[in-house]
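PROTEIN DESIGN WORKSHEET
SECTION A - STRUCTURE
LENGTH: 434
TOKENS:
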């Protein structure tokens, strides 16, 4: 049994009898008649691996019998000349191990056929507004003809929590894929660091990152952030087009997506090869927070515990640097630190950069289990326009982000081999300039 069948079986056993409907992604218009590059919905890729647009996966369970069906774009010789080969109905059955397949030209009749005989529909509202309308229309058709077909879905149940809990726990195969993505990301970050010179443009580093990902069969897992100097104080800076000046820090937040799983890594490198004294002070605080927080990534802890450890180090560092007054407890209570650290330390990581999975259930933090993957990314950002505070560190932004897998033997840092010690960075950059 292949991994997709195993996942489908696990999902339907957890959901119970009924029909499950998952809508894949559609092409998105970039401008005029040009589309953005297509990326499949991660749930669809996880459950069946089908990567064409406008597809629908239907699973059904009656007792011990679990079946599957795909609704796909039909084979079309004219369209395929312009846009590439399609699997079509026959290819969907042959290559994706489903019991049945339909052309989406026959969408309405296919839905009616697959939902007939089930009293429960497992469906996630608001994932596709256009398809929500189709589901409502189908249910209305059933209701109007109930004398002919009294067995149709009268209960609609959300599948999200069950499916996303499955995705939250990575198999060994998934962990291995995340490691591959992390290794490609390492090469891209290190080569960017080695190429870095004063007078370059952020866009040149951006291009180098993209090149390394594409060369290795991947792509960017999200919009690259290449932020020099004060641009790094903008958390999601994506202009990536400013000149890099000697003495500035360059913050690179970029990860490779390979085979559907993405890395998410942030490193800061000094333009010119040497950290200024001010930059080194801030960087050292953030690095210590990063290391201490990673130590807390063990079975039984939670994202909340990791964040608190990071916060303790960052706030104490701000006090030691005379940026904050008062004690650690006083500053944690007043949240004055949020002028310099305004985001959480971690998020789940996997097929999506901000991967699925709850952070807490009914106010109780979700506890770490083996196979969970998360980021650890403390930072400090000094922007007087935001903080209202003029400090000696204005214009400096630092974030250090690693990718961690929870294991029974402690945290597995997939990205620890991407340099982050000041001495190691400066030594390697000195070598690259010779």
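SECTION B - SEQUENCE
RESIDUE ASSIGNMENT:
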């Amino acid at each position: 049994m292949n991994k997709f069948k195993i996942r489908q079986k696990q999902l339907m056993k957890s959901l119970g009898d009924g029909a499950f409907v998952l809508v894949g992604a559609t092409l998105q218009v970039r401008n005029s008649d040009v589309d953005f590059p297509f990326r499949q919905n991660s749930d669809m890729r996880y459950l069946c691996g089908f990567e064409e647009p406008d597809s629908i996966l239907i699973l059904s369970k009656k007792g011990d019998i679990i079946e599957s069906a795909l609704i796909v774009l039909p084979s079309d010789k004219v369209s395929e000349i312009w846009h590439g080969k399609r699997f079509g109905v026959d290819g969907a059955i042959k290559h994706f191990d489903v019991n049945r397949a339909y052309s989406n030209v026959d969408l309405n009749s296919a839905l009616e056929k697959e939902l007939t005989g089930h009293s429960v529909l497992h469906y996630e509202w608001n994932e596709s507004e256009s398809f929500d309308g189709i589901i409502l229309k189908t249910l209305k058709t059933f209701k109007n003809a109930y004398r002919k077909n009294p067995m149709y879905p009268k209960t609609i149940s959300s599948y999200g929590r069950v499916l996303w809990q499955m995705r939250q726990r990575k198999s060994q195969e998934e962990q291995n894929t995340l490691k591959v993505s992390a290794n490609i990301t390492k090469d891209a970050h290190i080569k960017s660091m080695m190429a870095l010179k004063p007078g370059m443009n952020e866009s040149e580093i951006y291009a180098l990152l993209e090149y390394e990902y594409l060369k290795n069969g991947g792509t960017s897992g999200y919009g690259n952030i290449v932020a020099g100097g004060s641009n790094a104080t903008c958390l999601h800076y994506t202009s990536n087009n400013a000149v890099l000046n000697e003495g500035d820090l360059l913050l690179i937040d970029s990860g490779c997506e390979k085979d559907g799983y993405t890395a998410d890594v942030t490193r800061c490198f000094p333009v010119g090869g040497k950290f200024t004294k001010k930059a080194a002070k801030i960087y050292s605080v953030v690095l210590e927070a990063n290391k201490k927080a990673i130590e807390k990534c063990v079975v039984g802890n939670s994202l909340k515990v990791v964040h608190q450890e990071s916060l303790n180090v960052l706030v104490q560092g701000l006090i030691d640097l005379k940026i904050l007054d008062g004690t650690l407890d006083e500053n944690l209570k007043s949240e004055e630190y949020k002028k310099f650290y305004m985001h959480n330390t971690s998020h789940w990581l996997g097929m999506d950069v901000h991967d699925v999975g709850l952070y807490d259930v009914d106010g109780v933090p979700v506890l770490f289990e083996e196979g969970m993957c998360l980021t650890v990314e403390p930072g400090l950002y000094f922007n007087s326009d935001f903080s209202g505070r003029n400090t000696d560190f204005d214009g400096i932004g630092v974030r250090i982000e690693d990718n961690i897998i929870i294991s029974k033997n402690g945290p597995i840092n997939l990205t620890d081999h991407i340099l982050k010690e000041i001495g190691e960075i400066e030594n390697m950059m000195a070598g690259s300039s010779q």
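SECTION C - NOTES
The chain has a mean pLDDT of 97.
The longest helix spans residues 172-195.
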